[in-house]
Amino acid sequence: MLRLAWRNLWRQPRRTWLTTGAMVFSNMLLVFMMSLQFGMYDLMIDNGLKALTGHIQIQAPGYIDDQKMRKTVPDVVVLAASLRADLDSNQVSARAQAFVLASSEDRSYGIAVLGVEPEFEPHISSLPGLIKEGRFFTDNDAAEIVIGKTLARNLRIGPGDELTLLGSGLDGSFAAAVVNVVGIFDSGMTELDRTIAEIPLGLFQETFYMQGAGHQIVIDAPSFDEVPELKAQVQSLVVEDESHVVHDWNRLQPGLKQAIQADMSSSFAMYAILVILVAFSVLNTQLMSVLERTREFGIVMSLGLRPGRLGRLVMLETALMGIMGIVLGAIAGAVVTYYFTVNGLRIPGMEEMAAQFNLPALLHPQISWLSLLAGPLVVFLFSVIAALYPAIRLHWLHPVAAMRTA
Predict the structure, then answer these.
(1) Which pLDDT tens digit goes with each residue over 263-308?
(2) Cβ atoms of residues 185 and 101 within 8 Å
(3) What is the pLDDT of residue 36?
C-alpha cells in the first residue's frame, strides 16, 4: 500500500506539488514566526527584568501592592549577605526605596530614589552598565547619585552638578540630602529614565533613618528556566512571616506577562487561520483525487477490495504529502531563521514598541525544537484530519454505480 500510495501521488504531479508547496510555505512561515516570537519574549523578559526588577525579590508582606516606607525588611544588608553565602552567588543585592522631591537650581521633579549596594548592584541590574556619561558609584556611603537621561534633561543638570533630595524618613521625620551627580544612564525606556535615580545604600539608610532596614532583596537567576527552582530554594532559606515574603517575576511584573499572553493569543489566531487554509487545500486535493478515481475504485471494490483499505490508502497518500511538507518546511524554516539569527531583522514601524520593552532595534529569532516542530506537526495533523472526509466518502461508494462513472 505504501508503494501504491506513493505512485498515486504522482499521477498528478502538478497538483501534488502545489499542495505540498502550500504545506512547505506554511511550515516555513510558522517556524520563522514562532522562533521570532519566542526570541522577542525572551528579550522582553530578560531586558525588562534586568533593568530593575530581577527574577526574584524578598519584600515585606503587602509592600508589592502598597509601597509604604514603613513596610521594611529588617537588617536587609545582613540578610542579603547570608543569602549570597547560602546560594553561593553574587547575584543578590539589597535595596531600599523612597519617593522624594529632586531639585536642581532651575527645576524640581518627584522621583523614586533607590538605595543600592554599589558592589553587588551591577550583578543583578543592567543600569550600572548603561551609564553613558560619568560613572557608577563605588563607595557605599558617598553622597553621590546616578540619574536617568530624561531626568537629567528635565532638571538641566549633568555629571558634577548638585541635586537636593527632600522626603520623609522611616520615622516620619523630615529627610534631606545634597548629592553630586556622578553618572547618567540611558536604559532606552523613557519612563524609567525619567523617574528613577540610585544612591548608595549606606547614604540612603543614613538619610532616611532606616536603622539597617530596607525594602527589597533582589535575586537574579543564572537562567530563566532556573527561576522556579531558585525561588523554592530561597523560600527554604527565608521563612515567610510578617517580615519576609518571596515573589517571582510573574508577581513582580504582571503587566509583562499579560503583554506576552495577549501577543500570543493574537499570533496563535493568525497561525490557526493559516493552518485551516492549508487543511482546506489538502481537502480539495484529496477530494478531487478520489472523485477522478471513482471508476477505478468501483472496479477494485467489485473484485473484493474493502472500502476500509481504500480509505487507508487515501489517508496514507495524505500522510506522505504531510511528511514531505514537514521535512522540507522545517528545513526551509530553519535556514531562513538561522540567516536572521545571525544578521538580525529590522521591522519598520516597531521602534517605539521595541523601546517600550527595552528591545534592540535588530531582532534575532531563537530557534528551538518547539518552534521547529510545533507548527509543522499541527499542519500535518490538520492535513490528515482534512483527508478524513474523502476517505470516509469511499464507504458510501457502490461498486456498480462507481463503474458507470465516466
Answers:
(1) 788 888 888 888 898 889 888 888 888 878 878 878 888 887 787 8
(2) no
(3) 86
pLDDT average, residue stretch 208-225: 88
> What pLDDT does residue 25 have?
92
Residue-level pLDDT at 113: 94
Q: Give dist(CA 76, CA 58) in Å, integer.
A: 10
Phi, psi of 365 (to 5 degrees): -60, 155
Reduce the secondary structure of the chain to three states and give it as a string: CHHHHHHHHCCCHHHHHHHHHHHHHHHHHHHHHHHHHHHHHHHHHHHHHHHHHCCEEEECCCCCCCCCCCCCECCHHHHHHHHHHHHCCCCEEEEEEEEEEEECCCCEEEEEEEEECCCCHHHHCCHHHHEEEECCCCCCCCCEEEEEHHHHHHHCCCCCCEEEEEEECCCCCEEEEEEEEEEEECCCCHHHHHHEEEEEHHHHHHHCCCCCCECEEEECCCCHHHHHHHHHHHHHHCCCCCCCEEEEHHHHCHHHHHHHHHHHHHHHHHHHHHHHHHHHHHHHHHHHHHHHCHHHHHHHHHCCCCHHHHHHHHHHHHHHHHHHHHHHHHHHHHHHHHHHHHHCECCCCCHHHHHHCCCCCCECCCCCHHHHHHHHHHHHHHHHHHCHHHHHHHHHCCHHHHHCCC
Cα separation, 364 vs 345, in Å, equals: 6
Residues 81 and 95: their CA atoms lie apart, in Å, by 12
The answer to whether residues 46 and 227 touch, using CB atoms and an 8 Å cutoff, is no
Rg (alpha carbons) of the chain, rounded to whole number: 31
Tell me how far apart the alpha carbons of residues 163 and 143 are, in angstroms, rounded to a whole number: 10
Q: From CA 110, how far away is CA 100, in angstroms rounded? A: 6
